## 1
Amino acid sequence: MKPTEQPILQVRDLGRLFGGIVAVNDLSLDVRAGSIHGLIGPNGAGKTTTFNVISGFYPPSRGKVIYFGQDISGRATSALAELGLIRTFQGTTLFHELSVLDNVRLGCHRSAKASLISRVLGTDRATEDAAEEKARGILKFLELDRLADEITSNLSHGHQRALGMAVALAADPKLMLLDEPFTGMNPEETRRMIELVKLVREEQGVTIMLIEHDMQAVMGLCDIITVMNFGSLLAEGTPEEVRNNPTVIEAYLGSAVDAA
Ligand SMILES: Nc1ncnc2c1ncn2[C@@H]1O[C@H](COP(=O)(O)OP(=O)(O)OP(=O)(O)O)[C@@H](O)[C@H]1O
């Protein structure tokens, strides 16, 4: 799948204050369906807050978030997950004592009301069988199938992050927000994760928005990049445009642009 002109997400005049701190100020941006859209900027620029407002962790102080043409501002994370807007975190939110397969199986039950125990034990056989089949399919897709029975805490950092992606996929995302997906990875793990992100977009048709400080990865992966500074939009464009934008170089990229 390639990016379309159609926006899946529209952020309009977004503002978020914490007491006297203006974390996000008058931010507007469009994320096109099928795109990989980067959100970059210096520490404290407001990227995580923007993700938190889009994904329903905080209500906006001002402005709107529109998803598939619908105003979703201030809706709960769980309601947004039902609509396919799924956020992943910097730190993994996996059940480390469970197997790889069980983590993904639990992800398949996001809308089920059953308790954790009954989900793991599988009180409803037909639902459990369907969940297991789906989970195994996702693991195969991400080439994690040979690790299905491994206890999650035994996985390498790279595999744990890939598993986080598998759990997110189990929730049938349409828009996935990835928070620093390459943090703490070695170059080989980063290369592999870049391939996975591309695969999820190409073959599952999932639109991806990501925050990332690894400029080489961002430049190689994203179709469009939004640059924030002091809570506001500083620039937006293709990696080429952003990389050559003097304002961006001065405010953020500096020597990092040479490394990318
Ligand atoms: N819950 C909060 N309470 C108070 N201030 C906050 C809160 N969350 C964020 N801020 C402030 O808002 C500003 C933007 O922070 P944010 O974490 O969104 O930036 P960021 O671009 O994600 O930074 P980084 O790259 O370091 O993760 C910062 O000044 C931060 O201290």
## 2
Amino acid sequence: MTQESQTPHKRRVRYKGKYPRKFEEKYKELQPEKYQDTVQHVIQKGNTPAGMHISIMVNEILDFLQIQPGQTGFDATLGYGGHTKAMLKCLKGQGHIYATDVDHEEAAKTKKRLEEQGFGEDLLTIRLQNFCTIDQIAKDAGGFDFILADLGVSSMQIDNPKRGFSFKTDGPLDLRLNQEAGISAAQRLDTITKEELAGMLEENADEPYCEEIAKAITDEVRKGNHIDTTFKLRQVIEKTLSFIPEKDRKETVKKTCQRTFQALRIDVNNEFEVLYEFMEKLPGALKPGGRAAILTFHSGEDKLVKRALKEGYKAGIYEDYSRDVVRPSAKECAGNPRAHSTKMRWAVKR
Ligand SMILES: C[S@@+](CC[C@H](N)C(=O)[O-])C[C@H]1O[C@@H](n2cnc3c(N)ncnc32)[C@H](O)[C@@H]1O
């Protein structure tokens, strides 16, 4: 017997995979400044590191806004602060940016991160306000030379199971951008009628199975089964669509889950109402020659923005506006799948 075969066989430690599986365990990605290599590796693979948001169309936005030192700007949707930081850099230490977000939790982290990178209160004012209060902020600032709105939700919000934005992880069915105000999606489903829910799914997300899904949800709630987690909602959708031929079922369930979550998110956050108000107040917040860029992520938002800019142009409020949408490059979409649905529109105040 050789020496080698006498050595007792040692069981190899089970391979756990490259990345930690639970959100809380993604400690390296959640501290991006400390673990730059891990973060770069995740980004190169076309993924967004946990706790981070990759800003979309940064170059196109900066090219259009033409930010000069000494100017005053407004970032309506602070998020991770990627766009804010890129715009702050253009100011070269002279000028000011006001930014809003309704997400207290993420805004506090972003404020700290930007302060540590040298963008303190002398250059940046963050307000925990809805961007539809743009008129008040413009009054305090004396009008804006440039404005950016990057609508929707951040990757941090989608990836955090406690927020309930994703049907891919289980968590409370919340879907509020500001968890300190309003009611959660679960509470909304507790009292909504079948007709109203079907209308919401159709209007907010063009859901083709809106009638079937609305009936199934309201039936469950009537039986006393509260749909208060993301997985419970997903299960109701899966059961409702079980009549779909097996070869198409998986994809249809996925799409219907995406649309249902989108419709509920728009509803609990009054997204169309606040965007409408923002677009109405936008011209009044811009200085003459001021520039505004808006990124949207679904057709309902884009239609609203398009109409407001077109009407503003026809009324002589805007000197110019985007006739066509500007889309991210194929390269950007390949590196960041969340960029696929992005549409940018812009206008210049007369
Ligand atoms: C797509 S993210 C913005 C990402 C950001 N541009 C960046 O580069 O990191 C959208 C952000 O806007 C915020 N938001 C959405 N609707 C809002 C509203 N009506 N008022 C203020 N903030 C809003 C969300 O909470 C989220 O943090």
